[in-house]
Structure formats: structure tokens, C-alpha cells
Amino acid sequence: MDAKQGKKLDFSPILVPLLSILVALAFGGILIFIQGIDPLLAYRVLFTTAFGSFDGIAITLAKATPLILSGLAVAICLRAGLFNIGAQGQLISGALASAWAGYTFVGLPALVHIPLALIFGAFFGALVALVAAVLKAYRGVHEVITTIMLNSIVIALSDYLTSNPFKEPDQPLTRTPKIQDSAQMPDLLGLPLGFFLAIGLSITLWWIMRNTTTGFSIETIGRNKNAGWYAGISVKKTIMLSMLIGGAVAGVAGAVETLSIIGRFEPAFNAGLGFDGITVALLGRANPLGVIPAAILIGGMRASGSTVQFEAGVAPELVDLLLAMILFFVTAPLLARFFKNRKENVAMTSGWSN
Amino acid sequence: MKTLLEIEGVSKSFGSVIANENISLTVKEGEILALLGENGAGKSTLVKAVFGLVKPDTGTIKINGTVMESGDTAAAIASGVGMVHQHFQLVPVMSVTENLILGDEPKRFGVVNIKQAKKEALALSEKYGLEVDPDAIIEDLPVGMAQRVEILKALRRDVKLLILDEPTAVLTPQETDELLEVLRNLAKRGVGILFITHKLREVMAVADRIAVLRGGKLMGTTTPKESSESKLAQMMVGREVVLRVEKSQAKPKEVLLSIKNLRVSDDRKLESVKDLSLEVHAGEILGIAGVEGNGQRELVEAICSMRSRLSGEVIVKGQEIPNLNPRAAHLAGVSHIPEDREKHGLVTSYSIADNLVLNRFDQAPFAKGWIRNLEEVANNGESLVEKFDIRAPDAYLSAGSLSGGNKQKVVVARELSQQLDVVVAAQPTRGVDVGSIEFIHNQLIAARDAGAAVLLVSAELDEILSLADRIAVISNGKIVAIFNSKEADRNTIGRLMAGLAS
Ligand SMILES: Nc1ncnc2c1ncn2[C@@H]1O[C@H](COP(=O)(O)OP(=O)(O)OP(=O)(O)O)[C@@H](O)[C@H]1O
Ligand SMILES: [Mg+2]
Fold it and tell me: Which residue ranges have their beta carbon within 6 Å of ligand 1?
């Protein structure tokens, strides 16, 4: 990141995300209105459920936890100019691996078992990303293609594993056994421990991007690969490294979900978390700290979606629709260009084509 | 003649920088107005305001007597303004034809009619005598050729006012002469031309009138008849400029850079450096003279280990440089001023300070182990901005918002401020104003006198002739002759460059 930022507070980076949210809410409001429901009521329910009480906030933050992590996984890759659509697959791989470690090892103290299961998650998340990373770095295969295909492969593979070797014995359901108590992540101050882990990882990655040579290498390759090559930065290594970090963080996202919420691996329980990560990363401007508020917002919407349906009678698809619109507006270069006084490329869109 | 363009009292600031201050100018039909000024004087800003890319803070712009809405490029285009930008606006992965038609494609049944487009492209290129290959992909083209495409793109719509922002910076002398001829012909047809350049020779050759900017203000207008190159230089810079390079006799010592039987292929996999051998001594400047596209780019990139060598060796201080490892070349003591500053030399969204350590960010004192020392980066930035006279309010401005010449100075500052053994300078003064050319030349000479081996590649024969101690002529990937600069004769070199035996 830059050697020193300007002294004045610069609000321009949050302008586009903020506007996208507002525009999406406005469009959503129109659609709610067409359903014959008062949009203000719907939104009031949405926001008071998500943020109006301590319990509500706790649920929101719990929902936000895997989103911060999966958003981080996408964001780090975006910084390197890579579009990691594969957070979903990496996350599932990490979730399954941590579940396996969680129920297989018996008799470990929690202080050992939880980190071990998390490391399993990180490792297997990174393993999935490794395939895409190698293909990109050494064969030039576009990461969007490979990560999408890997998503399907991982989903199929995890289905197979949970219905065969890893299946909970004597049960009709396709799922793994429950993890040991020693692997269960506890709450802290009424919030899941994973939330603090996610915040810690965000801050760490932000710091790494800002203050270390590794961060500078990733950032440079993301902004101008040619200049990075000229400057002696290894493009291959940087691609590998950022994809592996991304994969590991996505794996941790899955692991945290397994170890603190679900307690086992069950296909479809993680559905969408990795894809929401894309929205989170873009809304957070690919900034490791920016993903936190973005994830909390989206987590809140996810948390209160059913209440809105229940209390205001809005179709449950509303939340998905709002998220899709936010994603649309935040990426629509038109809007960005309009407010950034044309052409000055939004840093993150430039990397997609390479 | 009718007045085509009237600029009235235009001012524009970027934060604390006043880029244009109350500028009034006119261009008549069929007139060529040359716009001169130092790097950062505000030339690009002014012409961008005419084209509607920059919104002036105050003042009006009239085209054909109509006041233009500020910041409306579409309206400017509709009233017949065409612009060739200082930095390429082409889509690198598309073909010449596709680039030419972009934004206004000939359609058939709602689909782009590529055959028709190609025909139009060829007709256009023929009409103006600017030869291009319609099927070539932009990123494979040498810069001079890409520039032609830019110009054709601007001419495609029926232009009445053509703006060219430093179009000749990347052209060879021959290409420049051809372009000047094109401009004269256009002027004869009544097109008004606003032409920015740093090359006084071109101004004297083609301009009807000359306007000089300095520090955002219009210093005055003159004509080639009333002025001279040195007068113009003084008007631009505000002091006397030595247009001739002054240097002492070179004292060459041991060989620092030696190239042995080097063979390199270009992007199209054609062999473009053919079994080339060359030695550069400590304390000398070896100039490579040649028509662009004769293997210079590939030679430079192979020396700096950025491009794969088919065979042959590059040896710096007795140590062989591994293939395809720019970092190793750098660590062995090779500084490289790259030909294309936007592509290789800079990360435009980074601050000037970060760009000034781009290839040293992980070395002391800019990093301690894994941790960057941002304070040192900042100090280094501030001191180099000062020392190399980079015109910016501070070192934290993004490099992309610098004027073209100042971008070049950032690259030069970075490369010449480090431990110097071998300096490979490719077009080091491209797009730089006369005052800064003097400065960069002096820096290269200082590097030589400090014992560096300097390899200078330039499309400007004048630059080679005045700066180099020895001159190697490259033609078709081979060194065809080497002269001592004292014995060098312009005509002989010119003939050798053209591939004719002397
Ligand atoms: N978008 C911008 N943001 C901040 N400053 C800018 C911006 N564009 C231009 N400037 C500043 O305005 C001044 C004038 O710039 P301009 O590009 O017009 O110079 P120029 O005369 O074209 O120089 P050159 O010969 O080097 O191309 C410079 O100091 C430049 O740094
Ligand atoms: Mg300019």
C-alpha cells in the first residue's frame, strides 16, 4: 500500500459501496411496494432485527463471521489481480476437513484440538486453491474458470465422502459424525470465538498488506504485473502465495462454521457462504478491513431475512435480491466511473482480465 | 481565416496545484499552433479541457463560435474535435481495425461489420498516408506504429480541430518527418491543429504560431520566424538552457558489461537480436543508434533479464546474469530505464515515493527483513523529488497524476539514484522538456564519470551523437558498425541505420 496516505480523511473509497447499498435498497423498496407492502416497515423490521438488540447483534455477528473470512479470501486474491470465485469450494473443503479432524481425534484438550481442526481446515482450503494457483502461475489458465470447476469438483467429492467413508454410522442422513466436545469452539463475551478470530485475521492481513514486503509484492502484481516483473517480483510466486492465502482463509471460514455452529459436516449447510464472500469482498473494496463492515451488513440481512418474511410478509427472496443488486451496483463500473470522474480505473476491476 | 477554437480565461486547479491560470488562446482554420512548456506546465490539462476531458474551474471554450459545455467529450467530438492523447488509449488485445472503429462501429443487422471496418481502416490509412496493418494486434506493435493507429483513430471522424499531445515523443525521426508532413497537409485542407511537443526542431519546422506555457500561465505567443530554439527554451524554462551537451573526454576503464553471441526473439517469436556481441567499459557511454524495431527493445530486455535469451551470455562485472530473472540483473548492478514507463516503469496508482523504491522495496534501508520501513521510503521519496526536480506538491501524490515528463523523471530518479555499475537507458528523455533533458543528460554523464558503464538506446540520433562516447549502429538485430563519436558522421550512420552498406 502507499507509503503514506494523504493527511485528510478520504471518503471516496466508501462512496461507491455506500451508494450501491442505497440504490439497491431503493430498488428493493420499489419491489416491496409492488407486493403491496410498506417498504419502510420491511426495512425497519430488517434493521431492528439485525441490529436493534444485543441478541440480534450477536446473531448478526455470528452470521457475519464466516462472511468476513470468505470475503477476506476473495479480497486478498483481488489485491493480486486474481478473481477467486472458488472461495465456496475452498470453504467446503476446509469445513469437511475440520469436521473430520474434529470427530476423529479423541482425547485431545480443547486448546490443542480446536487449533488442530482449524489448521486442517486452512490446509485443505489451501489445497483446493493450490490447483487453481498452479494452473494459473505455470500454465496461464484463467483462475475464474478453474475455481468454478473446482467448486463443482469439491462439492461432488464432499457429497461422496459424507455419504461413504466419512458418513455417520447407523444414520439415514448424509452427514459426518458430530465433532468431539474438545473441538467445539466456545463463545466469548456472548459472541462466537470465531468472530474474534476473523477480526484478528482481517487486521493481520491488513497489516501485512500495508507494512510488509510480501504485501507490497502482492499489491504491485495486482496493479501492474509488467512493472512488478520489471521490478524483480516473481509473478508466479505472488500468484501462488495469494491464492494459497485466499484458500487457507476460506478453509478457516468453513472450519469456523463447522466447529462453532454446525458441529459436523453436512452438505448444503455451507451453501452460499463462499459466494456471499464475493459480494463482501467487492463491497469492502477488497480491503481486508473493509470486509468487516461489509460482512456485518450482509450477515445482518441474512440473519433477519426470515423475520422480515414473518413480520412484514415480504418474500424470503428479498435478501438474495438485495444482495444481488448490491453486487451489481458495486461492480457496475458505470457507477464507479460516474463518481470517480470517469476513467480512473477502480483498482480491483483492472485485474480481472489478466 | 475563420477562428476555430477560442479559449477564454481558462483556469484549472488540482488541489493546491494550479495547472492552468487564466489562459486565453485561439486557433484558426488551417493553422498549426504549437504548445510548448516545461513538464507540468499545464499543456495536457489545457488541451484536455478543450476536448472536454477536464472541467475548467473558470473560463469558456468556444468551438466555431459555440460555447462548449465543460466536461462534455461527446459534444467536443460532435463539433469536430479529435485528440491524440499523450498516453495510449488503445485496447492492447484488440486488432488495429477493432481499435480504429471502437465507439463508432459500422454495423450490419446490428452486428459489427468487420469486413466493412477493415475496408474503412485501409481507406483511412491510405488517405493520410499512414501505413498500418489492419489485422495486427496492438500489443505486438512497436510504439511508433501504435502511435499511428492513435492518430488514425483521431482522424477517423471528420475532424476540424486536431489535438496532438506529444505525438512525436515515441516516433523515430523519419516517422516524425512523415507526421509533420501529414499535419501540413491537414492544415492545407483547413484543419486547425493544436500540437504539443518538447522538440523545438519540430516546432520551428511546422508551427504557424507558438504558445508557451510556464507554471500554468501563458507566457506569450510567437512565431518560428521571430524566435529561435534557444529563445524558446529560455521562454519555457525561465533560464538559459544549454541545448548542447557539455562533457569531458571519457576515460574508459575495464569492461563492465559484456554481451556475447546474444540471440533473442521478439513477441512474435521471430529472431530479432542475431548473434550480437558488445562490450561496454566503465566510464563510457555507448550509444546504440538504429531505426526503431531493429532489435533494440529485445536487446535491452535481454540484458536486463526480462526477456528470454535463445542463446548467448550477458556478463556484468565478470558475473553471468541468469536468464529471465530481473531481480538477479538488478542485484548484479544493472539499472534500467525502461522504454515504456507506463507499462514497466511505474505503478501509476502508487505514490511517487513507492515508485521510487519499486525495485528496492525489500532491500535495506527500505525494509528490515520482512517489514517495510515506510519512513525511509518517504524520506527517499522526498529527497529524490527535490533532487530530480519532480514537479509534484509532495512525494505521496499518485504517480499517475503527474505530467508525462515528470513520470519519466520518477523512473530516471529511481534508476540513477542507486549503486551504479551498468546503466541501461532506453529512450531516457522521451517526453521530457528541454530543461529536464539537460538535467537527465548531465545525470547520465555523471554516472559515466563515476565509473558506470552506460548503454544508451535512443531513437533520437541527435541524442546519441551528443551524448555517446562510442556509437554502435544496430540494423536488423546486428551491430553493423561501431564508431568513436569523434569520427562519427551523421550521414554514414544514417545510411547504416537504414541497412545500406556505407
Ligand atoms: N488528475 C490530476 N490530479 C492532480 N494533479 C494533476 C492531475 N492532472 C494534472 N495534474 C497536475 O497539473 C499540472 C499540469 O499537468 P499537465 O499534465 O497539464 O502538464 P504538461 O504540461 O502536459 O506536462 P508534460 O510535458 O510533462 O506532459 C502538473 O503539476 C500535474 O501534476
Ligand atoms: Mg502532458
Answer: B 14, 17, 19, 37, 39-45, 86, 391-392, 401-406, 433
The alpha carbon of residue A209 is apart from the nearest alpha carbon of chain B, in Å, by 10
Residue type, B399: A
Residue A93: CB atoms within 10 A of its CB come to 31
Torsion of CA B294, B298, B304, B309, to 10 degrees: -130
Q: CA of B400: which chain A residue's CA is closest? A: A344
Distances (CA, A) of B323 to B139, B150, B269, B299: 23, 35, 17, 13
Counting from 1 in the atom list of ligand 1, the atom nearest the Cα of B45 is 18
Residue nearest to atom 3 of ligand 1 (CA): B401
The residue with greater pLDDT, B112 or B16, is: B16
Over residues B389-418, the pLDDT tens digits come to 999 999 999 999 998 889 999 999 999 998
What confidence score (pLDDT) does residue A307 get? 84
Preferred mutation among A1, A4, A204, A350 to probe B, highest tally of B CBs within 10 A: A4
Cβ contact B395–A6 (<8 Å): no
**For residue B258, what are the β-bridge partners?**
B279, B315
Q: Does residue A271 lie within any of the structural domains?
A: yes
The torsion angle over the Cα atoms of residues B19, B22, B28 and B29, rounded to 10 degrees, is 50
A283 in a structural domain: yes
Q: SS3 of B60, please? A: strand
Per-residue confidence (pLDDT) for residue B92, from 0 to 100: 83
Q: Minimal Cα–Cα distance from B243 to chain A, Å?
A: 32
pLDDT tier at A342 (50, 70, 90 boundaries)?
very low
For the cut 60, the answer to whether the pLDDT of residue A73 exceeds it is: yes
Q: Which of B325, B329, B396 sits opposite A6 (nearest CB)?
A: B396
Evaluate if residue A341 carries a pLDDT over 60.
no
Out of A223, A344, A353, the one facing B350 most closely (by C-beta) is A223
| pLDDT tens for each residue of B474-500 | 999 999 999 998 888 888 898 898 887
In a domain, A135, yes or no: yes
> What's this model's pTM, rounded to 2 decimal places?
0.85
Tell which residue, B402, B427, B447, B248, has the closest CA to residue B337. Answer: B427
Contacts with B, A 215-274, CB within 8 Å? 215-217, 220, 223-224, 226-234
What is the rounded CA–CA span in Å between residue B229 and residue B240?
11
The residue with cell 452486428 is: B111
What does the pLDDT read at residue B103? 75
Range B202-225 average pLDDT: 95
The answer, yes or no, to whether the previous bond of B56 is cis (omega within 30 of 0) is no
**Number of domains within chain A:** 1
Q: Based on the number of CB atoms within 10 Å of its own CB, is B492 exposed (0-12), middle (13-18) or buried (19 or more)?
A: middle
Using CA of residue A159, residue A161, residue A165, residue A170, what is the dihedral sign?
Answer: negative
Residue A354 forms part of a structural domain:
no
Kindly list the residues from chain B whose CB atom is less than 8 angstroms away from the CB atom of residue A211: 371-372, 374
Residue B377's closest chain A neighbor by CA?
A: A3
Closest CB to A2 among B343, B345, B354: B354
Pairing type for strands B284-289 and B453-457 reads parallel
Domain that holds residue A22: 12-342
Report CA(B44)–ligand 2 centroid distance (Å): 4
What CATH number should be reported for the domain holding residue A160?
A: 1.10.3470
